[in-house]
User: Which sequence fits this backbone?
C-alpha cells in the first residue's frame, strides 16, 4: 500500500528491512522504492543481502545504524505487541470486535502469504513472526562498524544513504566513507530514551558535511510547517514515518494518498503565507528562533 501510493504520488518510499513482504515483490510493484537494511557485523550476510537488493533492481540502499540494541518499548508491551508475536485472549477479542481488520488484514495476509516471516532481514528467508527463534534475526547488529560500511560502499554501486546520524562527527565519518546521503534521525524517538530532536542537530550536521552529500531528516514531521522548518534548517528532503503508517492502517492505500495530499496542501499553503514561491527560497531567514 505504502509503496504503490508513493509511486502514484511520485514520492520515494523506503522499504523497511524488517518488513514481511519480499523486497522483490515491492520492487516490481513500485520500482522507484529505496531499500533500508539492518545489517549485523557479519561480512557474509552483508554481501549476500547487498547482492540480493541489487539483483532486485533497487538503486538506493539505506543503512540504518541506530539499532545496535533494541529499545525497551514499553508502549508496545502495554499494547500486547511482542516479538515473537504471542496470540492471547486480548488479541482474539480484538480480532472478534474488529471484523473488518480481521478479514481485510489478518485473513488476507494468511491467504496470500501464509504466516508472515521476516522476509528481508538477510538474503534468505527469516523466521516466522510467531517463532520463538525470531529474535535471532536481530542478532549481532552491535558488531557493525565503519569497516562494514566501507565494505558495503565497495560492493554497492547505487546510491548509499546512512540513517540514524545525530552528530556532526558521525556525519563527517559517513561522508569520508563515501555516503551519498545522510538521514538525520533519532528513529522517531524509539531508540535512545532521552535524545535531542533531529531538528536541533540538523543545522550543525548540514554545515559540517558540505554540499556533495544530501542531508535528509525524519522524526516528528506532522505538518507542512514542519517540512518547511527542516528545509530551512538545512535538510534537502524529509521523510514521514508514523503518519503514513496510521493512514495505511486506517484507510489503506486511499488513506496514504490522502495523508500525502494533506501534507502537500499544507506545504503549498504555508509557502504562500510565508511569501516563498519555490523550495529553493526556503532558507534559514524564515526561522526566527532555533
Ligand atoms: C512501527 C515503526 C516501525 C519502524 N521500523 C523501522 C525500520 O524497520 N527501519 C528503520 O530504519 N526505521 C524504522 N522506523 C523508524 C522510522 O523509519 C522513522 O525513523 C521514524 O518513524 C520517523 O519518525 P516519525 O514516525 O515521527 O515520522 C520505524 C518506526 C515505526 C513507528
Assistant:
Amino acid at each position: 500500500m505504502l509503496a504503490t501510493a508513493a509511486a502514484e504520488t511520485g514520492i520515494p518510499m523506503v522499504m523497511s528491512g524488517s518488513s514481511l513482504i519480499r523486497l522483490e515483490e515491492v520492487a516490481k510493484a513500485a520500482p522507484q522504492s529505496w531499500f533500508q537494511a539492518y545489517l549485523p557485523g557479519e561480512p557474509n550476510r552483508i554481501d549476500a543481502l547487498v547482492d540480493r537488493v541489487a539483483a532486485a533492481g533497487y538503486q538506493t540502499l539505506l543503512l540504518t545504524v541506530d539499532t545496535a540494541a533494541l529499545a525497551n518499548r514499553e508502549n508496545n508491551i502495554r499494547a500486547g505487541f511482542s516479538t515473537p508475536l504471542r496470540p492471547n485472549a486480548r488479541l482474539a477479542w480484538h480480532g472478534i470486535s474488529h471484523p473488518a481488520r480481521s478479514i481485510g488484514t489478518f485473513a488476507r495476509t494468511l491467504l496470500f502469504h501464509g504466516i508472515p516471516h521476516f522476509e528481508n532481514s538477510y538474503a534468505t528467508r527469516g523466521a516466522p513472526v510467531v517463532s520463538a527463534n525470531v529474535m535471532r534475526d536481530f542478532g549481532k547488529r552491535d558488531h557493525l562498524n565503519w569497516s562494514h560500511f566501507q565494505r558495503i560502499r565497495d560492493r554497492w554501486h547505487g546510491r548509499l544513504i546512512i540513517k540514524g546520524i545525530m552528530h556532526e562527527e558521525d556525519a563527517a565519518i559517513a561522508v569520508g566513507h563515501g555516503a551519498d546521503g545522510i538521514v538525520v534521525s533519532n528513529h522517531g524517538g524509539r531508540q535512545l530514551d532521552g535524545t535531542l530532536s533531529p531538528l536541533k542537530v540538523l543545522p550543525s550536521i548540514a554545515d559540517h558535511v558540505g554540499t556533495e552529500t544530501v542531508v535528509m531528516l525524519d522524526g516528528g514531521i506532522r505538518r507542512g510547517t514542519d517540512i518547511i522548518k527542516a528545509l530551512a534548517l538545512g535538510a534537502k528532503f524529509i521523510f514521514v514515518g508514523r503518519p503514513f503508517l496510521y493512514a495505511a492502517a486506517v484507510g489503506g492505500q486511499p488513506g496514504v494518498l490522502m495523508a500525502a495530499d494533506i501534507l502537500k496542501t499544507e506545504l503549498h499553503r504555508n509557502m504562500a503565507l510565508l511569501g516563498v514561491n519555490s523550495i529553493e527560497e526556503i532558507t534559514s531567514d524564515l526561522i526566527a528562533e532555533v
Q: What stands out?
A: The chain is about 45% helix and 10% strand. The pocket of flavin mononucleotide is lined by residues 16-18, 36, 64, 163, 185, 187-188, 190, 218-221, 240-242, 245 (CB under 6 Å). The mean pLDDT is 93.
